[in-house]
Amino acid sequence: MPKIPKNRAKVDTVVDRERKYSVEEACALVKKAKFAKFDETVDLAVRLGVNPKHADQMVRGAIVLPHGTGNTVRVLVFAKGEKEREAREAGADFAGSDDLVAKVNEGFLDFDRVIATPDMMGAVGKLGRVLGPRGLMPNPKVGTVTFDVTAAVKDAKGGKIEYRVEKAGIVHARIGKVSFTENALSDNANALIGALVRQKPSTAKGTYLKSITVSSTMGPGIKIDPAHFVSQAEEG
């Protein structure tokens, strides 16, 4: 009989893989099941009862997590004149107009979030093949195409995340680090789940929150019981 690795054995004594936990219990277990030597990222995966092939069932948005993500976010802003200055003062790592568009087109990609003023979208749109596949294309639906660059930059730096349902109906999002307190992870998880519930498409039929799982980079998937959120989803 093969020997079970020590780390796996530890996890199996902490997490019941068949049980569905409350958000608070699951976030506590993420910390207890940690065995990696680095500060692992904590992710939430929510499987929704939607068909993303239908435009009216696409779930997409952005939310500022109460406790941020624990990651340093490098923000690039496409803006000119006074708006470029505002972006820099707000803390943008990079800001510029046509010269910056050309730089990105030539291969510069040392940034994590892109914001653009509406008057720059004609030029930024030409970067679709560069930014699109990386999920970096600015979009007014998530607040990254705006003249209020100060607020957009501060939100991005302060823990704003974007989410979008994938082909299989799953939303994946980062909600923090294992070093976060249990309460901070729980607050972030509840904030994201609540946002998804509020965005339930009116055309979605049947069970909306099919499954919820939280996990760290190296840790096991810990199931969260969607039942607590069912009434919210039905009201939505």
Account of the protein in words:
It is a single chain. With 236 residues, the chain is of the alpha/beta class. The termini are far apart. A four-stranded antiparallel beta sheet has the order 7-1-8-9, covered by helices on one side. Strands 4-3-5 form a three-stranded parallel beta sheet, with helices on both faces. 35% of the residues are buried. It has helices at 6-14, 23-32, 82-90, 98-105, 121-124, 128-131, 149-157, 182-198, 227-235; strands spanning 41-48, 60-64, 75-78, 94-96, 113-116, 160-164, 170-177, 209-216, 222-224.
Write the layout of secondary structure elements.
Elements: H1 6-14, H2 23-32, E1 41-48, E2 60-64, E3 75-78, H3 82-90, E4 94-96, H4 98-105, E5 113-116, H5 121-124, H6 128-131, H7 149-157, E6 160-164, E7 170-177, H8 182-198, E8 209-216, E9 222-224, H9 227-235
Parallel strand pairs: 3-4, 3-5
Antiparallel strand pairs: 1-7, 1-8, 2-6, 8-9
Helix pairs in contact: 2-8, 3-7
Rg on CA atoms, Å: 20 Å
Structural class: alpha/beta
Helix and strand succession? Answer: HHEEEHEHEHHHEEHEEH
In percent terms, what proportion of residues is strand? 15-25%
Describe the structure using short key phrases.
single chain; alpha/beta; 4-stranded antiparallel sheet; 3-stranded parallel sheet; 33% helix; globular
Quick structural summary:
The protein is an alpha/beta fold. It contains nine helices and nine strands. The strands form three sheets. A four-stranded antiparallel beta sheet has the order 7-1-8-9, with helices on one face. Strands 4-3-5 form a three-stranded parallel beta sheet, with helices on both faces.
